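RETRY 2/3 - previous attempt timed out on the joint model. Re-submitting the same 816-residue input unchanged.
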Amino acid sequence: MAILPMLRLSLVGHKDEEEEVLALLQDLGVLEIERINTDNDSPLEWLPSKISDINRELTRIRSNISFLRDFIKTNGSIVDLFVPQKLPFTQEERERFTREFYNEGGYETVESWQSALEEIRNSINSLLQDKELLSPFENLNFPIRSIKGFRHIDVFFGEIRKGDLNKFVEEIKTYLADVSIVRETPQYVFFIVVAHKEISGGVRGVFSKYNVIIFNLEKFSGTPREELSSIENRIDNLLKRKESILEKIKQKGEKFLNALYILYDGYQNELIRYEHLGRVAHTPNMFFITGWIREKDSQEIKEMLEKRFRDIYIVMSPPEPDDDPPVALENNSFVSPFEVVTGIYGYPNSKEFDPTPLLAPFFAVFFALCLTDAVYGIILSILSLYLYKNLLIEKHRKKLLQLLFICGLFTIGAGAITGGWFGNVSEAFGFLSSFEPIRKRLILFDPLKDPIVFLGVSLALGFIQIIFGLFIRMMLNLKRKLYKEAIFDQLFWILFLLSIVVTAGTLTVGSLRFLNKPATYFTLIMAIALVATQGRHQKSIFLKITSGLGSLYSVISYLSDVLSYSRLLALGLATGVIATVVNELVKTFSGIPVLGVIIGVVVFIGGHLFNMIINAFGAFVHSSRLQFVEFFGKFFEGGGREFNPLRKIRTYTIEKEVIE
Amino acid sequence: MLGTALAILGSALAVFGGGIGSSIGVGIAGQACAGLLSEQPEKFGNLLLLAALPGTQGIYGFLAGFLVISKLGLLGGTPATPEIFQGLQILFACLPVAISGLISGIHQGKVSAAGVGMVAKRAEEAGRALILAVLVETYAILGLLATILLLNGIKI
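RETRY 2/3 succeeded.
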């Protein structure tokens, strides 16, 4: 089960058919192509320039997309923040959108919009600057051209702080220049200075001494008022042009954007295909591909390729001992969502087995115990089911939703036996009190009243999982014919740990007291067996005994592993307590007349939603951690590489046929 | 009445110890996230989880605080009146969650911030970054657990 067997597929063909073969393989998405390193390769000379052409095209599309995107309102939801959804198109729609885009000169149109809007923005900005230059001198009722371009005289338009004005005027006058005040504001004074060209150097010195701002009005000729109204006119015209472009974008933008998305994904897949061409070996007339294929696909694919292409030769063989084939997992529909958890840690290596079926039940139970609220479980299941049905993303990325659905169902059970239904909702609110007896009847233990029972359950589950982990390791060793390791390192430890627990049990449970003696003896025997065998790698008898004794210290590490499962209690309690607090708050608010009900409802929904999200998240990461550190540590090696065949990858779109 | 005051001090310590730890931790992680978000806004989903992770210490502290409040019967009905020694017991029982929450929250924030760096380069590593940060949280949980068990053992 679980890890799919892989075959090495080698394929030789004629160069003429190479691109078609690769295109077909990409459509099928079944073969991971390995790079062939050989000295006498004759690489395709046109390939690098083809790849850079495609990259250029992609850059162009990307810049068009990022421009258009700002104008097109998509009905995005909060979900898009977490998982950007993709647009569904059929093959026919893809072709139609692309054709229309090219027919209407899509690129040129979009780019002309972009440059026109850019130009309008720049023009408006410079006009606004002009307006700022002119407006202080609005009251001058003579045309500016009449006071510029003199042969002997310079005219300056300036602005100065009011406090400096008197000193400034005095100083300017010493140069035999003339100052006339044009306009005053509470802080600044605008003025015109007329000076002979021979002294204008000195006048400029005075300007910089008093931090005077000089306005350059060279480019204007009419009266300021005329100029200002012409600026206003031009701005109005520009804004009208902008409106008309925006109108066009509104009409055609969405269609173009869709076409751009489709084009982007198309080129992206072309890029992937051509990059894979670089992994293929070539002679002047032939090409040679090697890679990995799932055994279950292999026969069908071989026949399909041989039927379709004439000059093609295919060999398939199982992996050699020093090969490292990629890993593909396959599980039944209950287990396969849990591949998400395995995937976070990393795939098993190709010589191992898939741990997913082994962790699945533990993960679901742990998640449920961390969340422990039946209503949250119901909501979680319904929500993930709804998203699973409606989210527009590829199917293999929806496994997390399936996982949450299953965990939600388990949570309903865990909530029922611990009495969590929105915390203590039926106890807290009088109008729900008729449900209280039902809730009470379902409770096996109340985490708030007797946390010790919950703790016991958590630790017991942990103990079971750790023993199970050791057991798996033992079976692995037996399968690899490492009998010594299986018996000494695992079986002895399993028996020793079990006997410790049984002995402890006989001490606490009165009716088992009679078993105490045999259990204690058995524990001692196992301890001696461990001391005798754990030092077997050492050479001298003295070292054998001391390292055997030292190994007993590992009990501590098993103990700490088991204690780690106490997090189930802590997280389970957290959910219940916060839910209770939310209910208490709602009760307090509902005392307020009129508004109380509204505030109460808002607090109730918001509070419980917050609690559910935070704790479901905690439940997920902590349950994962228990698998990775406490469980995997016992037997799992990992380090496998996920099977990644040449296939179509789409960023913005998705095949409509796949969803429906 | 001094007993009640001491117990309330314990409850307050639990809440604000965890709260400080979490606010510093979330603060550190949040700053790192904001930096990355300015460059790669599409990673918001992954980052939100990393930034939220050090927030749990605050919740644990609050949880312990609430357990004390409900033990004292301060929410409704007749409040219990613990002796001075019982108050001290409750105060001490709150220390594990208060201190471990304070310190682990800060460190979890640092690990989360480092995880943000991982996500920046390879978004698919978000799961592993989360797990690393969760390793720190274990000790806040053990602190909470000790507090719960101690509180459970104190009879008023």
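The interface with chain B takes residues 81-84, 343-345, 451-452, 455, 563-564, 566-567, 569-571, 573-574, 577-578, 580-581, 584, 614, 617-618, 621-622, 624-625, 628-629 of chain A (CB under 8 Å). Closing ticket.
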